[in-house]
Known about the structure:
The protein is of the alpha+beta class.
Amino acid sequence: MLEHDKYINLKTFKRDLSKVETPLWWISLESDSNTFYAFTNRLSGKVKRIRNNSTVQLCPCDFKGKPLGDWIDASAFLSEEHRLLSQVVAACKKKYSWSMHLLEFASTIFNRKKDRVVVKIILKK
């Protein structure tokens, strides 16, 4: 469904149910085409919103977040498991090439790698 799209727009919900859209790099680690992974900073707003409400929506988008398709209902879960995070980062390096390597370089310089968390997104059937 989204396997050919480079970016996804993740829509999370605040406590008052207002929406916040965030473009993400994403990968699929499994043959299950209904499960996607991303990583982000554990201090980000989207992490706080997912902790409060796991209901999300996503759609393909361009690199700026402009939707390029229909919104799909999903659930998002957070994981701080180091092994999973390593797999997600390695897969992102393959998919996003020099862009991901540049992000890794900046994350090292600014000591941000320690703040990463995995976002697991499962599409609702």
